[in-house]
Every structure is written in C-alpha cells, then in structure tokens.
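call fold(seq) -> tokens
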Amino acid sequence: MADRDDYHLILCRARQSAVTDSPDAKHRAFEEELLALLTSDGRTTLTVAPHLIDLTPDGLAIRRLRSLDGNLIVLSWLPARATYWLLRAAGIEGHRESETPAVGTRRLLCLDLRKYPDPAACVEAICRIMSAAQLPATEGGKPAEAELLDESTQPRWYPVIDYDRCVNCLECLNFCLFGVYDLDASEAVFVDQPDACRPGCPACARVCPSGAIMFPEYADPAISGDATDETKPPSDKSNKPSDRLSTLDRLVDEVDDLDV
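ret:
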C-alpha cells in the first residue's frame, strides 16, 4: 500500500442522449443515484468529468485530473483495463491494485460501472477499497459537494495502447492508413494523431500480434479491453505468413468499406 491513504473519486459520465430509453439515458440515472450515495456522508472527495474517451489532452477536465493528488478511484462506463491506459496516456500516473507501488507513489484504480447491478453495489466495492484508509467524515456528517468539470466534448474514436503487452513490433504503425501512430523520442510507438482514426475501424487491434491495442467502445471484448482472459490477444491471428497476408488484405478491405 502506498504511504498516502487518501482517496479521490472520479466519476466519468456516459455520453448524453436525447432518447429517454437509450442506454446512455439509463446510465445517467445510475450516475445520479450513485452521486447521491457517494456524497451523502462527506467521506470522500469527488470529481465528475465528461465521458472519458471524449476528453482531449489539453482540455479542462484532463488538466484538472492531472492535478489531483493521492490515490485515485476512477469510475467509468469503459473496461477497466482500457480506462487505466487511457489515463496513463493522458499523463495521469498510478499503480493498479495488482501491483505493489513504491513508497510515495499512488494507486490508480479503475472500476467499470457496467459490472455493477445497481449503484449500491458499486458503493460497496468502493468502500472495500477504502476501508483501510478510514477516511473521516466531514464535520457534522454534512454531504460532500462534487466538483463538476464542465467541458464541451464531441464523440471520439481512437486506439489505446496497453504498454504491458506492447512489444513495439510496429505492426500498427506500418498498417494504419491514416497516420494515427508515430514513434516517440525513445522509438516507442504511441498514438500521435488520435482524431485521424477512422470512426468504427478496429483493424489495427486485429493486426496487433500481442493484443496490445484496444478500442474501448468496440463490441468484441478482446478488442475493447473487456476480455475475461486478459492474457489472450484477439483471436484472428495466425503465425503462417500466407494466412497473415490474407488477414491483412481482408482488414484493408474492411477499412475501405467504412464510411468517412
């Protein structure tokens, strides 16, 4: 456990929808009840941000999240593994629950709100994480106030790299037709132009031999980062050169068929 026992909660909302019975509208109702439960006794500090994948690196929300101190518990509607690497790519550092952080460093724990049947179950999970910290309530047990980060966003679609898996083979860089990837000063591949990615295209994730590339909102859990077996890469890989070339040709065709 890090030597800092304070926890700051970050709730990343779902995208808003004008359709009352849409999944996003139901997510918003879940969020409101969750906020009421989390702020009821003043035991936590809480920041509410827009949908995580839609935030830009130089925007208000990401800049504010970078400034937060202490351990972070991030609640979002995305797979926890994808959320973790989204935050790391945005410069928000921390160790996961499965890792042993060095003294003076913090935890960065990500919870997928889709995994909980109701807000109360989510609060129970948060309390289990925070139990060792024994955070004091605010004076008189007054409800806490959530910090709301109001930032205008647009839906975004781009890849997220899991650097625990990435072997820097450069398959993604060589395959991508849109200039999304580049190399940094250490010759490591990174997502340089995320908004150049073709909306709905997950082809580079299918090409990646180590399953290191995620598209958090894609339906296939092996590509979204939501797979139960996180050591297993996407299933349509082959070590045979002929099969691999056939797969690449098929993926290029799929990209060509996508709408701009």
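The helical segments are 23-38, 60-67, 80-89, 119-130, 171-175, 203-207, 221-224, 241-257.
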